[in-house]
ABC transporter substrate-binding protein
Amino acid sequence: MTKLTRRDFLVSTAGIAAASAVGGNAFAATGNQLVYKPEDGAKLRVLRWKRFVQGDEDLWNANTKKFTEKTGVEVRVDSEGWEDVRPKAAVAANIGSGPDIVIGWFDDPHQYPDKLIDLSELANYLDKKYGGWYDVCKKYGMRGDKWIALPLGVVGNAIVYRESQVKAAGFDGIPKDTAGFLKLCQALKAKDTPVGFALGKAVGDGNNWAHWLLWSHGGMMVDEKANVVINSPETWEALEYAKQLYATFVPGTLSWQDPSNNKAFLDNQVSVTANGISVYYAAKNSTDPKWQALAKDIQHAHLPIGPIGKPTELMQITQMMLFQHTKYPNAAKAYLQFMLEAEQYNPWMEAAIGYVSQPLKAYEANPVWTVDPKHTVYRDAAALMLDNGHAGPLGTASAAVMADYVLLDMIANAASGAKSPKDAAEQAAERAKRYYKT
């Protein structure tokens, strides 16, 4: 894991500051600065997911306005619910019209790689300038030796918990192993302070913790050769664990989507969940004294390690895709570059208090990660996480299996008792084989 110092950070990002000072032109060519000249009369439409942290949206829009002022390119930004971005992106890919740029999820670009513009030149430029892409970002953004998308960052996922309630249950913090974690959740349930994890069609929170649960016990959807291996003893063990964990949940988690656990935690319905930093952000920035007190009680921790003996976390990578149907590819590339350059990216990440962690290693040294110790656990998201195709390759099949919620449905069915662990695993295997055709 690469850790850059504050000095490294300042040195690595000094170039863009110098470039922006030349005649007020953000695209001034200094040194190895990459320049894309927007087409005359260019207009762009960007589709992105709706913010959970207000600072994210405010700075994104401010940076977009700054881009327009510097280039004359008008940019329209549309925000959609997390679950709605994926189908809208797929429609744009299939019909060849719609947004020029979509900021989507996970390995969705691998569902329609032939509909996307090659971004290798820009990706390689950013790689050299900002300390390199994390390996998992390369895996998500590349298909073969070509970049089909640019990772914008990772919405870090961690255990969010109320320190006072965990201590009241007899624990000093979150146990580092799955066995101890189950005991904590059972103790919290006995204290009438239950836990809750999303089991509905939650793109982020549901998929993240469900994949962790499976992988922590050694289960996986496919092996290295893309053979479907989900129906295995390791999966059955993971699903038995899910049943025991589910017994400690607050009612209603089978229908939870991404906003649901935020609301449940802030409403004092649950003591523990898995989420990004948005719960803490909401409490910390509230004017309500009760929420401000809650912020002081909130702590974060990495998800526990299971029988496999190593971290097995999935986190929600978000990627910027540029579609071939755009009329203004140079303007669009210029926009992507502008948003990932240090002058824009650093203030954006700070405004969102680290809700999206960096895809490029130089940004590890951003002070957002150390200004508040409760932020730090989210810093290492990209360095720590596995990709959702694990252990097989990313591609059309892995993207489709996730989009169809095959793994999450399996966990929900087994945890709730709707199916036995073996029946749930068998059904998941049959569904996955529709996409992983051999």
